[in-house]
Design goal:
This protein has helices spanning 17-20, 31-36, 38-44, 79-90, 110-117, 181-196, 242-254, 272-279, 314-326, 347-351, 359-371, 402-414, 421-433, 470-474, 480-493, 495-498, and strands at residues 11-15, 48-51, 55-56, 68-72, 95-100, 129-130, 133-134, 140-141, 155-158, 163-166, 202-205, 261-266, 288-291, 336-337, 376-380, 502-506, 513-520, 523-530, 536-537, 549-552, 561-562, 567-570. By secondary structure, the protein is of the alpha/beta class. It folds into two domains: 7-103 and 181-206 and 262-484, TIM Barrel, CATH 3.20.20; 502-570, Sandwich (Immunoglobulin-like), CATH 2.60.40. The protein has an eight-stranded parallel β-sheet. The chain has a five-stranded antiparallel β-sheet with strand order 16-17-18-22-20. Strands 6-10-9 form a three-stranded antiparallel β-sheet, with no helix packed on it. The longest helix has 16 residues, at 181-196. The protein is globular, with a radius of gyration of 24 Å. Bound molecules: 1-O-alpha-D-glucopyranosyl-D-fructose. 1-O-alpha-D-glucopyranosyl-D-fructose binds at residues 61, 64, 101, 149, 169, 206-207, 265, 267, 292, 306, 342-343, 403.
Length: 571
């Protein structure tokens, strides 16, 4: 038990088990494969390994549909393998956090199987079952008009007991009813304490603000008169009892285990005041949350338009970064820094350039942005070698994600009349934004399938793995990987400034360069990043007087000009 908040200064590395390293040649990554790579992660400078879901699952949403919280997907290994990973990390002074997915379970979970079996089953009320309603013509309709995340209604009709059940995501992911105390206790017991008892150090908490529903399920406002289903995210985010539930989970299941790290995935909460209700130390709910809007850059303005690629300006990035860098100042809250995860395309391809000429320099420039940010830093597997999106020529058949395919098929239906505009638009969006891009096999070396597997990988390896892989970069002092190692070390050396410092943007309106100052007491750092493929004037050059260049991504460069995608940190 301790309250030193060890997690504040940690560098967290997200492992997506399916795509990290396959130790047994079945084409799927696995936990023994992660154990094998722990020394690699340590050499990179990682403190915490976050394992995306490894629980038993029918894998409709890559394990975010859990059929047994107390077991591991056989393709990934066993509970003992997870304990081995915890041991391998702990023996090196590293920690492990798991993904806690408890807004919904799989429809194959024993709880749902019972709940579905009859209206008077004692677990009936563990999920949301509601009778149908009927339109004027007498057609059976879902109980409310909500559109879910993966396209389509949030309600699915079940013939057996002739009622609908609620699912914000796929129909194979029914929502658990947190309003039922017995359900909450089962969740804490099975999904939380089971693993804390095995020695894990915390959780990334999936969809953290969606557990409390308005259980009368009022209709969402009609914004699309042509359709029965309507945008409805506001109907279930930050619901009436959400803070009561999270506080209860904290008191019952986190606090007894000491300084457990929890990072919630917080959607649709623009007002920092509301965010502090989750992450203020005095609120006793979560250590920190992810602010997802950096991932939304370049997406359409609403959920329905998510995969419509939309031009963006650098000021958008600046305002998002500034908002979540500064909102904790003068409070007891904490924040996070990240620009990649398993739900987004690769940052080099989205925010800079993945052309052969610029991709390495771009990856290093983005690394400088990340390591100088206040908060707990998260990097996603492959980010440290500058992995990029799948080639644009790859056909839709190479895409596997349930969400992207849901949007694509919806667009296909809309294009059935012969006008393929919508389908082309969505396909174009998926080429940059699909969740698949981050799920390609990790590129270890230049052997077949990037050295990820000796078998047939579940997802195709990137065509360019010969040029971008760990083995090659470990041997080059100027590689992206070597750069990340250096700058992660510098982040720790200057932790007061980089991890804890105050953040201020300079020259906000500049659309080419992002310049900011970090400060703490008398110390100051100045960070300047050129987000374009052209040389740009260094407008803030005066501010460097009396400072030294700490690190940059070009070996040499004229003081007053920033080369393409150049980044520098002065101190
Ligand atoms: O994502 C929650 C979520 O709603 C998004 O932020 C997500 O990126 C999605 O694409 C919304 O359109 C979490 C997981 O990170 C994601 O992989 C799962 O699919 C989802 O929960 C359901 O469990």
């Amino acid at each position: 038990t301790g309250t030193n908040n060890w997690w504040k200064e940690a560098t967290v590395y997200q492992v997506y088990p399916a795509s990290f390293y396959d130790s047994n040649g079945d084409g799927w990554g696995d936990i023994p494969g992660v154990v094998e790579k722990v020394p690699y992660l340590q050499s990179l400078g990682v403190d915490v390994v976050w394992l995306s879901p490894m629980y038993d699952s029918p894998m409709h949403d890559m394990g975010y549909d859990v059929s047994d919280y107390e077991n591991v997907l056989p393709a990934y290994g066993t509970v003992q393998d997870v304990e081995n990973l915890v041991e391998a990390c702990h023996s090196r002074g590293m920690k492990v956090i798991l993904d806690l997915v408890v807004n919904h379970s799989s429809d194959q979970h024993a709880w749902f199987q019972e709940s579905r079996s009859s209206k008077d089953n004692e677990k009936r009320d563990w999920y949301f079952w509601r009778p149908p309603r009927y339109d004027d013509a007498g057609n059976r309709m879902p109980p409310s008009n909500y559109r879910g995340y993966f396209a389509g209604s949030t309600w699915t009709w079940d013939e057996k007991t002739e009622e609908y059940y609620l699912h914000l995501y796929a129909k194979e992911q029914p929502d658990l009813n947190w309003d039922n105390k017995a359900t909450r206790e089962a969740i804490y017991n099975s999904a939380v304490r089971f693993w804390l008892d095995k020695g894990v150090d915390g959780f990334r908490v999936d969809t953290v603000n969606k557990y409390s529903k308005h259980t009368d399920f009022p209709d969402a406002p009609v914004t699309d008169p042509k359709s029965y289903i309507q945008p409805a995210i506001g109907m279930w985010c930050n619901g009436p009892r959400i803070h009561e539930f999270l506080r209860e989970m904290y008191d019952d299941s986190f606090a007894p285990y000491g300084d457990v790290m929890t990072v919630g995935e917080l959607a649709n909460t623009p007002d920092p005041k509301n965010v502090l209700e989750y992450v203020g130390a005095s609120a006793k709910q979560l250590s920190m949350v992810f602010h997802l809007d950096i991932g939304h850059i370049g997406m359409g303005p609403s959920l329905e338009e998510k995969y419509i690629l939309t031009p963006w300006k650098l000021t958008k990035m600046k305002s998002i970064v500034e908002k979540w860098q500064t909102f904790i100042e003068g409070t007891d809250g904490w924040t996070t820094a990240f620009c990649e995860n398993h739900d987004n395309g690769r940052s080099v391809s989205r925010f800079a350039s993945d052309s052969p000429e610029f991709r390495e320099i771009s990856a290093k420039m983005l690394a400088l942005m990340m390591v100088t940010m206040t908060g707990t830093l998260f990097i996603y597997q492959g980010q440290e070698i500058g992995m990029i999106n799948a080639p644009r020529e790859w056909p839709i058949e190479e895409y596997k994600d349930i969400e992207g395919l849901g949007y694509y098929r919806e667009a296909e239906r809309q294009s059935a009349g012969g006008d393929t505009t919508r389908k082309d638009l969505i396909m174009n969006g998926l080429r940059t934004l699909a969740r698949d891009h981050s799920r390609l096999p990790m590129q270890w070396d230049d052997s077949a399938h990037a050295g990820f597997t000796t078998g047939q990988p579940w997802m195709r390896a990137h065509d360019l793995y010969n040029e971008m892989n760990v083995k090659k970069q470990e041997n080059e002092s100027s590689s992206v990987l070597s750069f990340w190692k250096d700058v992660l070390r510098l982040r720790k050396e200057h932790r007061d400034l980089f991890i804890h410092g105050a953040f201020e943007v300079l020259d906000y309106d500049n659309l080419e360069t992002f310049c900011f100052v970090k400060s703490r007491d008398d110390a100051r750092a100045l960070v300047v990043l050129n987000f374009t493929d052209q040389a740009q004037p260094f407008t803030q050059v005066d501010k460097t007087r009396g400072m030294k260049l700490l690190v940059g991504n070009y070996a040499d460069s004229p003081l007053e000009t920033l080369k393409a995608f150049e980044g520098r940190v002065y101190i």
